[in-house]
């Protein structure tokens, strides 16, 4: 079984021997790959809707691994308990939604857990929540899948101050040297910051958001000057 690059990027961050939970699993390709390749012995594949879980069940039947993976109808982590999983994967959903799921799940604040997150949008929302709530992002990566760039990062709870600069929340450790997808992601984030800040300025909206973004862009300019 082969995984698409974006799912393989997430799978590579799952710890060997861990019990996983794949949130928003769709066809359960990532859980199946983890079991078939001996990375994990058991896990949970959850989704908000019945239809994706039916697709997931078909995948498990094809590979004869129904007993290894529990299918769960769940809104995020609402129907999953902390003693059922160690590594939790969020792939294929927006960053704002991921943040909302994390906000209402207190048991993730556990140093034994690992969160593996692949936001489709608004990655800054997730980073801000994580860093302001004691989580440290320990690894980031980026890849191209079917002509689209994706990023992924994994994080662990430290329980101490993990706050970062405004620029970090929008760009993480990107651009990663030698990774073209990472460079494009970084450039898009900087472009969005410039566009949003200019739009607010042109509309005469010198709000708290405007000055926040302006300070981030100033930080970006300082880093660029330091590289020149």
Overview of this protein structure:
This protein has about 230 residues and is an alpha/beta fold. The protein folds into 2 domains: about 5-165, 3-Layer(aba) Sandwich (Rossmann fold), CATH 3.40.50.150; about 180-225, no CATH class. Helices cover about 40% and strands about 20% of the residues. The protein contains 8 helices and 7 strands; from the N terminus they run H-E-H-E-H-E-E-H-E-H-E-E-H-H-H. It has helices spanning about 5-10, 30-35, 50-60, 95-105, 125-130, 165-170, 180-200, 210-225; strands at about 20-25, 45, 70-75, 85-95, 115-120, 135-145, 150-155. It has a 7-stranded mixed beta sheet with strand order 3-2-1-4-5-7-6, with helices on both faces. The model has no long low-confidence stretch (mean pLDDT about 95).
What is the element layout, followed by pairings?
Elements lengths: L4 H7 L8 E4 L5 H8 L6 E5 L2 H13 L6 E5 L13 E7 L1 H9 L10 E6 L3 H10 L2 E11 L2 E10 L8 H6 L8 H23 L5 H20 L1
Helix pairs in contact: 1-2, 4-5, 7-8
């Amino acid at each position: 079984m082969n995984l698409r690059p974006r799912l393989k990027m997430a799978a590579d961050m799952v710890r060997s021997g861990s019990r996983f939970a794949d949130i928003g699993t769709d066809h359960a390709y990532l859980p199946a790959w983890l079991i078939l390749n001996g990375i994990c012995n058991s896990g949970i594949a959850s989704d908000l809707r019945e239809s994706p879980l039916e697709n997931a069940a078909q995948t498990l039947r094809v590979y004869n691994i129904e007993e290894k993976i529990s299918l769960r109808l769940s809104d995020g982590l609402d129907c999953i308990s902390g003693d059922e999983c160690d590594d939790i994967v969020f792939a294929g959903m927006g960053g704002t939604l991921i943040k909302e799921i994390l906000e209402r799940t207190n048991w993730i604040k556990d140093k034994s857990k690992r969160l593996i997150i692949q936001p489709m949008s608004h990655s800054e929302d997730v980073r801000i929540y994580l860093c302001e709530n004691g989580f440290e992002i320990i690894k980031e990566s980026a890849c191209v899948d079917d002509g689209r760039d994706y990023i992924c990062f994994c994080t662990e709870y430290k329980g101490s101050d993990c706050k970062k600069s405004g620029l970090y929340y929008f760009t993480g450790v990107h651009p990663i040297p030698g990774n073209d997808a990472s460079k494009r992601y970084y450039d898009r984030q900087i472009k969005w910051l410039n566009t949003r800040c200019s739009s607010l300025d042109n509309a005469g909206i010198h709000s708290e958001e405007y000055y926040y973004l302006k300070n981030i862009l100033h930080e970006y300019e300082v880093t660029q000057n330091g590289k020149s």
